[in-house]
Amino acid sequence: DNLASECHIGYKSGENLIILDPLEEIIVGFSDSLIFNNIAENNTNGFVIDGENIIIENNTARYNENNGFDIFSSLILEEILPIDPWWNFIPIISFFNNTAIFNGENGASISSHRCLVSGNTFTHNRIGIAVFRDIINITNNLIEYNSEYGICVFDYPSLINDNIIRFNSYGMYVGSYPPFDETTLIEIISGTTQIYDNTVSFNIQGLSLFHAMSVMIYHNNFLNNSNQAYDNGWGSWDIGYPSGGNYWSDWTSPDTMAGPDQDIPGSDGFVDNPRAIDGGSNFDMYPFTTPNGWLI
Fold this sequence. Notes:
The protein is an all-beta fold.
């Protein structure tokens, strides 16, 4: 096994300074590795990592010209993909508790299948997380103040859950490679993508699907985005009654009726009228009246 730890890389980083001339990036090109407690700053790219069975934990990438973290794997999809990609999910790349801040392009650029991205902070980059492969779980991250996009996922399927996505120009994009549709925040072409338990707030754009199929969006809080949602495809915005859909800060009443058809007198925690999703004929049939209403 290999370790890369306690390195402080950059040209003005203070103590524990390591200078390589010309310094391009920290490059790790082997598998079965643990990379932890390093700082990469003022480089072309912060960390460039190629391999599998790698844990990347408690590192900081800041003020790099391009990407803070550039993560690859040469393992092809057929070698690791079961019939159900989420059955007994074991990541080949684990990316935990890292910070990417003030990088010129992506906080993290991920070109590896089966990657778990959890507990990280992505702030003040151009794009917080850019994902170019599938079977990715993005969970429990703080993604804020990125100048363009919080999350871009350019493939599928993915699980995107339990993240805080706020104060970005566009919160999230999932779908085809750029150029982006400047009217959307999350764009999904197709695949078994699930988006749930996220709080998406104070972005210029809310959540958008573009010609999407087999995408489920449920149990998210959409709070005070300038435009909450867009869908010109076939996204599923709720998972039926009584599990419900999402909470929308601009769609919270009335609640005087109950039942699957909302035709039984009485309150049930759902707005009586479906919330229309801009862009087509899609609806969240069971919008919650309170944030995190599915937990009550």
